[in-house]
Each structure stands twice: as structure tokens, then as C-alpha cells.
Amino acid sequence: MGALAIKNVTKSFGDTHILKGIDIHIEAGEFLILVGPSGCGKSTLMNIIAGLEAPTTGEVHIGERIVNNVAPKDRDIAMVFQSYALYPTMNVRKNIAFGMETRGVPKKEQDEIIARVSKMLQIDHLLDRKPGQLSGGQRQRVAMGRALARDPKLFLFDEPLSNLDAKLRVEMRTEIKQLHHRLKTTIVYVTHDQIEAMTLGDKIAVMKDGIIQQFGSPEEIYERPSNLFVAGFIGSPSMNFVECHLAEQGGEYGVSLQSEGDARFVALPNGARLADRIGQKVILGVRPEQIEVAEEGEPGLACKVHLTEPTGPDTMIFTQVNGKEVVARVHPRAARHPGETMRLKLDMGKVVLFDPQTELRLV
Amino acid sequence: MDNQNKLWRVALYAVLVYAAVYYLLPLYIMATTSVKSMDEIRAGNLIALPMSITFDAWGKAWATACTGVECGGLSRYFWNSVQMVIPAVLISTTLGAINGYVLSKWRFRGSELTFALILFGVFIPFQVVLLPMAQTLGWFGMARSVAGLVFVHVVFGIASTTLFFRNYYVGIPDELIKAARLDGAGFWRIFFKVVLPMSTPIVMVVLIWQFTQIWNDFLFGVVFSSGDSQPITVGLNNLANTSTSVKEYNVDMAAAIIAALPTIIVYVLAGKYFVRGLTAGAVKG
Amino acid sequence: MTSYNGPAQYGFAERWLPRLVLAPSFLLTLVFVYGFILWNGYLSFTTSRLLPNYEWAGLAQYTTLFANERWWVAVKNLFIFGSLFIGGAMAVGIFLAVLLDQKVRQEGALRTLYLYPMALSFIVTGTAWKWMLNPGLGLEKLVQDWGFTNFTFDWLVNPDMSIYTVVIAGIWQSSGFVMALFLAGLRGIDDSIIKAAQIDGASLPRIYWKIVLPALRPVFFSTLMILAHIAIKSFDLVMALTGGGPGFSSDVPATFMYSTAFTRGQMGVGAASAMMMLMTVAAIVVPYLYSELRGSRNG
Fold first, then answer.
1. How far apart are the C-alpha atoms of A266 and A248, rounded to whole Å?
2. For chain B, how many structural domains are there in total?
3. Residues A172, A67: one domain?
4. Residue contact C129–B233, C-beta within 8 A
5. d(Cα C74, Cα C254) in Å, to the nearest integer?
6. Strand pairing category for A186-191 and A154-158
């Protein structure tokens, strides 16, 4: 059964088109991430799902119903806002109870729900405090508690972690994930942070300029990005893009790579599919961890190390291939110092090729 | 601290104290004059301390001084002002709060234009509405009545109260309203349960602002009221400008202090909000 | 298709309640501000005298108005009063604000003292200054008692000088307000700018003159607007202090309008003078409001 379906939703203000035909479908219990740079329309889409803004055209289905003309309060949803939007004049208990009071939930039931939710989120000792007396992380929990008390069909999270400091953000991320596993709720989660997207989502919709660039599982998006934007947006450090020409050499199809002082031809598995593009320019996308140190005797491209960035478990090597800066993620012990040369090889089974004109993925 | 610096601080404080004297002197003169007898006023000078304190002038100003042909003191005018100011302040503040709430949190197509239209009302010189208003009040039987004055003050107070509340409510995050809507609250429930409890500072500012404005108004009072409905400012002006018999400055000053007392008390008790109101109109944010 | 950028509203209540709630104020404004302006405008083109009548008179009332010496005295007085009042209140207010900004002890108390006249009615101010400035027993006598027997200060009863007494009382009442506005503005200025200038070796007066006050341009213009507005509307102060006298030597347009329309039975001329006042205010306020509203929309 579908939990949320968005069908050809557009949103325009006069001549400004914020959303240009959005289609999304997720099942009950799935965790959907809407991710993209600011201004991509993800928050507008979220507001449309919540019913806080009306779509210009298109349909929004929650569960079985079309909810285009259903008020937010009747959509059976709950939302956690970026600013938490806690009522500043009410204490935590009142904040959580406000929605239930409005819906006329009996007092006894309210108390039970507040007790359960606040225990689950470890805010039971804060119930009599006002939001102004809470830390950022505590406010975040209260905001989630308010949503949980609703027990809705659909949870909406609008960049809930972006106001927290780095350490707290990682902790809360884990907690949200655990909560999702435990409660099996359907969640729509807006973020501009691709790490949050990858770690939390069952499905990710990568958005830009009011269009969904790619919709799929984290693995799909990571391994088979549908265009240059998605490839560059997801993953940290970013995927390397190297311009090269498709060529044939000895019955194999591949590309030639040139470093400072070395050059070699590397074959593409299943390269025959690109036979009609021989001689044309393509963009080769390779993630830093898909570049490895060539073993003794293995073929490799001798590259000059420009700069190293140790991160602890890995070291980033900055070098140059085909005139572009390329980053490789290698084991610290394998890393050489700047000025020295390392022999590197690409994991050709995982690299992706893009058409430089359309920016779409080729294989 | 070097000598030059010290000299500069001394000069600074001297100027500041001098300025304080400049602002306080009229109040001091009003107070001392009001407790002197006329003989002492004629014999002594403006800033001399009273030799013997008498409250005769106060009693006269309150109860028996002549304001034109009548000689009942200011008491009647004072109570007229009280009757006028309470409903006028409460009604205009209430309307301003609701208008500001709509104009900031429930915008609709045309609401910005509505705001601009209302806002212009802050600036018009009221002379331009005096003649039509005098006529209209006559038609509705409210001419020369306290009710008529209340009506006028409400109508022309809406612009500033709306402006105050709207500017304050713009600062309340929209997400709070969204959250309340998702919680199932409607227009009024959001207003009374979420927005209004956050409004204490601005409610204070507007109440005090409106109270001061309406209590101190003279133009509407002198044009739209007569005889037994006139407010205190008109009473004071009549008393001070009555040209019958001998000028009694001690009575004038006592009357002026009586007329000023309510707003002075408000200023002393809630000066913070008063200043905030004054500056809010001028400095954005 | 909607081009409206606002929250979605559902059902009768959400869609219509906001408009319904705003409607009374909107209608009141429409009728009692805009409708009355038109009505008053119409009156100014009629032959109305003691009572309104709607017989068209064209520009006759304006011709009468412009031929009236008293009107031109009022306009001239407004000009004198306006420029001196604005200039004086501005100078005193800014000066005090800068001084109070020097981390002064008892700043709160001083501020309270400087600002309290703003809480007074202009009628009270006028009554008080009328007493202090009266030649017989006031300031003049005080200075004479001090030994300066030739000292005269008869501005209140001197037709050539009476408008200046209004200036004096006006500045006394409003300069504290200017101080409050500028002090708020000064407090909003980033401290590090001043520190940076001090490190560059600039003297304190120079820092204020070259850096701080130019940064307060918006405050300056707002204050200017408000003072100009007070000046044009000024009615109470003149009524209480001089009553427009001696004769009509200290009349301003506001008192002129009142006396022609309500005590001298020349309603048409009164209406015409009110229109002139409105146009003066509009000429100042409309460009200001336009830039303010546009600015806030962009911001």
C-alpha cells in the first residue's frame, strides 16, 4: 500500500516556477529523503505535502486519499520544524499536549501519551520547563515528542538537525534512525546535507531547480548517479570528474589518462556498448575511494602528489589527471609525501561516464 | 586616567546635568507655583521656593475654578477623559492586535494593499477629516458626546495600533503558526493560545501609547465635544485662557499638573514600554 | 493558477475569517479616512459657509484662501516654526544622545528626565511655558530681580516674536524624543567599527562626525519625518501657548483651519486650507512610505 504519492506537482508564483512536475511514490514504513541545495524546492514540496502551501497543479495522496483539499490538521501528519517551532509560552508538557487538547483527546489519555513519549525521548525530567530553558538538543527532542504524540500516518522532518552542533547532529541522526526502526513509521525528511541523506534514507529524491534529478535507493544514487549534478552532490569528498576521449586499442574500448609524466590507456568493462561514441569526448566520474594504490607489478598511472590531507582512517591524495585535480582516498600507510610519485589505478568496474553536453550518465 | 581625560569627563557630566535642569525646570516651576499663594507669586520670583505651602490652588483647580462661564473646576473634565480613554484604548488596541495578526500571519491577496491603505492613516493631518466627521457624528446622534469622542479616537487610532502589532508579529516565526495549524488549531485558537500569550510587551507598548495619545489629545476634544462632554485638555485650555478677572497662575499650574498626572504616572511606572513605543514607530525592527 | 505567495487556506473559516476580521477596520479606514478626504475635498469646492451646502463654487474658496493675509502669515509661521523646531530639536537631541553614549553613570535616570516631556500633553506644555514666559511675573521679572533691570523678554505678547515662543516650548518637549531615537540608533552600531577607528588613531569627535553619524542616516530621516509631521500637525501647542495671537501673529495652518471652519463660519475656506495641509504632508510622506515599504519588501 502506498503511504505517500505525489503526482505531477508543480508550484509557481507568477513567472517563477519553484516546482516543475514532481512525481514521488513511497510505501508505508519507508524513509524518504528530499535532498538538494538551498532553493531547489525541497522545502516547498514539504510544505505542499503538509498542506501549508497549495500546489499549483498536481495531486498529493496520503494513504488512500487525495489530500489536496484537506487541511493540514486533517491529513494525519506531524511535522518537526527546522526551528523546532516550540510554543515559547508553554512548558514542554503543554507543548506536547497542545495538539491533543485541540483534537479533544481525553485528559487521561493525554497524560499516558506524554508519559510514554517523554520517556522514549528521555525528556521526562524536562516536562515543566519552558523552551527558553532548554538546550538545542533538548528542544529538538521536544519537537520530536510533539510529533510522536500525534502518532500520525506520516512524519515530516524539515531540516531538523541543521541548528545543532556537529557532535549533537550525529547523535540525533542515529536516534532518528533507531526511532524509525522501532516505530516503523513513514517519514519524509528534508535536508541539504548529503551525509544525512545517505545514512537515513530508504529512498532519496535528489532535487535541483524544482526538478527531481534522481529518485532511488542510497546505493543506486551513490553507485549509478543519473547525471553530473547528482554524482557531484552525493558523496564526500566529491566525485572526481576527468575529461577524456573514448578510444579503441587492441580490440578493447577505453580512455587514455594522462598524469604529469605518465600516460596510459585503461579499458572499460563492457566498453563495446560505447562503440558508436569512439573519438568523442566523455566525462569520466570516479569517486576518491575508487582510486587505489597499484600493487607491485600491477599496471598503474604514476601520479605526482600535490598535497595530502590525513583524516585519520584515510589520507586524501591530491594529484592531477588529464589536467584536472583529482582526489584519491588511500590508506595512510600507502600515502606518499607531496612532490613524490605514487602509482594509482582506477576501479574501472565502478567508474561512471557522462555525456559532456547533456550531463547524463552513459552506462 | 590622564588629566585631559578627567577634564573631559567633568565637562561631560556638567553638560548632562545642565540639560537635566533644563528639562526639569518647567516641572519644578509648575509644582512650586501651584503651592504658592497669588500674593507670594506677585512678590517673589519664578524659581523661588515657596515660603508657605498652600493647596488652595489645587482645590480650586479641581473643584471651583472657572472654565469659561462655568465654575466647577477640572473634576468634571477629568472624569470625562477617564470615561473616554478607557473604552477608546481597549477597543483600538483590540482591533490593532487582530489586524496585526491577520496582516502578518494570515496574509491573503490584497492584504498588503490593505495594510498600506491603513498605514497612510497614521500620517494624515486630522484637519482634513474634521468637517465631515462633525457632520457624521451629528447624523448618528453622537455629536458633542463622550461616545462620539470614543468613536473618533478608535477610528483614527486603528492605524497606529495596527502598525505596532503588525510589526511585532512579523517577528514571530511563521513556523510557529504552521506548527499550531498542524496541531489542529484554527484562526482564533492560534491567536488566543499561541500568539497572544507572546504579546505582553507589545500589548503594554500599545496600551500606553494609546492612553498617552488619547489622554493628551486636544484637537478632537475641542472640535467634537462641548459643555459636559469635554476632555481634560479642553478643560485645562479653557481654564488657562479664561480672560475673566485676575489671572491665577497657581491655579493654572495646579490644573496643568492635574491634567498631566495620569500620563506622568504611567511614564514613571512603565517608562520602558513608553520609550519602546516611541522608538518603535521610527526605527525599523 | 495562483500567483499569491502565502499560506494555503482550507475551508470557509480559514479562507474567509482573516478577511472578515480585517473588514471592519478596512471599512472604517475606507470611509473615515479616504471617504472623508474626498468629502472634505468636495466641500472645498462648494460655497459652504456656516453650514455645509453642496453648491459648486469651483476654485472660489481657494481664491479666497490665497487672498487671505492671515493664511500667508500661518504658512510663513509654519515655515519658521518647522525649520527652527526641527533644527533645534535635532541638534539638542543628537548632542545629548552622543553625550549619553559615553558610558555615563546614571544614564537611565538622565534619559528618563530628558524624555518625560514627551508624556505631557502639548496643552500642559503650553500652559506651563505661557506662565514662565509671561512678561509680568515670569522669566522677565526673574532676570530683572537678579539685577538686570533693563532686561526685557516680551516675546509672548510681541506679534513679531510670538511664534518663537512656540519654537522654544516645542524644542523643550520634543528634543528628548530625538535623543531617544538616536541613542537607540547609536546602540545599534557595531562596536568594532568604533574600535577599529580608534586603533587608526581617530579622535572621538572625528569618529562620531565621520563614521557614527553617517551610519545613522536612516534614523535621521525617520526623525526628520516625525518632527516634520509634528510641526505640520501642531495645533495644541499654539492654542495653549499663544492662541494664535497676539492678533493672528502666531497662527499656523492647523489653527487657521480650526478658526475659519469652526469659529468664523467659513467652512469652505477651512476645507480648502485642510486640503493644502494634506497635500503638504502627502508630498513628504508618500515618497517616504513608498521607499520604506519597497525596502522592507526587498529585505
1. 10
2. 2
3. yes
4. no
5. 8
6. parallel
ipTM attached to this prediction: 0.88
Q: Can you give the pTM of this predicted structure?
A: 0.87
Chain A and chain C share a number of CB contacts under 8 A equal to 22
pLDDT at position B155 is 94
Distance from CA of C11 to the nearest CA of A (A): 8
pLDDT in tens, B110-161: 888 899 889 888 888 999 999 999 989 988 888 888 999 999 999 999 999 9
For an interface test with C, the pick among B27, B36, B127, B188 (most C C-beta atoms closer than 10 Å) comes out as B127
Residue A162 and residue A35 in one domain: yes
Task: Write the pLDDT tens digit of every residue in B42-70.
Answer: 877 788 788 888 888 888 888 887 777 77
* pLDDT classification of A363: cutoffs 50, 70, 90: low
Where do the domains of chain C lie, and which CATH numbers do they carry? 69-298 (1.10.3720.10)
Decide which of A233, A251, A286 is a domain's last residue: A233
Residues B149 and B27 in one domain: no
In DSSP terms, which residues pair with A346 in a beta bridge? A291
Nearest-Cα residue of chain C relative to residue A48: C8
- Tally of domains in chain A: 2
CATH number of the domain encompassing residue B79: 1.10.3720.10
List CB contacts (< 8 A) between C112 and chain B.
271
pLDDT of residue A128: 95
Residue C10 contacts A, CB cutoff 8 Å = yes
User: Which residues are within 8 A (CB) of C132 and not within 5 positions of it... i.e. 6 or more apart?
Assistant: B26, B29, B46, C138, C139
User: Are residues A247 and A163 part of one domain?
Assistant: no
Contact between B178 and A81 using a beta-carbon 8 Å cutoff: yes
B20 and B155 in a single domain? The answer is: no
B30: containing domain: 3-54
C5 touches chain A (CB under 8 A): yes
Q: What is the pLDDT of residues A160-199, one digit of tens each?
A: 998 888 888 898 899 899 989 988 889 999 999 888 999 9
Mean pLDDT of A335-354: 90
pLDDT recorded at residue A210:
92
User: Does one domain contain both A78 and A225?
Assistant: yes
**CB distance A99–B184 less than 8 Å?**
yes
State the cell numbers at C241.
Answer: 501657548
Instruction: Give C108→chain A minimum CA distance, Å.
Output: 28
Among A180, A209, A233, the domain-final residue is A233
B153 and B112, same domain (yes or no): yes
Query: Would you say residue C185 has pLDDT above 90?
Result: no
Q: Residue A72: its chain C contacts at CB < 8 A?
A: 10
pLDDT at res. B285: 30
C-beta of residue B249 within 8 angstroms of C-beta of residue B50 = no
* Full residue range of the structural domain in which residue A214 is found: 2-233
Distance CA C190, CA C257 (A): 47
CATH code (residue A344): 2.40.50.140
Among all residues of chain B, which has the CA nearest to that of C216?
B283
Question: Nearest-CA distance from C13 to chain A in Å?
Answer: 11
A125 forms beta bridges with none
Coil vs helix vs strand at A104: coil
Query: Are B254 and B138 spatial neighbours (Cβ–Cβ below 8 Å)?
Result: no
- The SS3 of residue A153 is coil
CB B64 within 8 A of CB B123: no
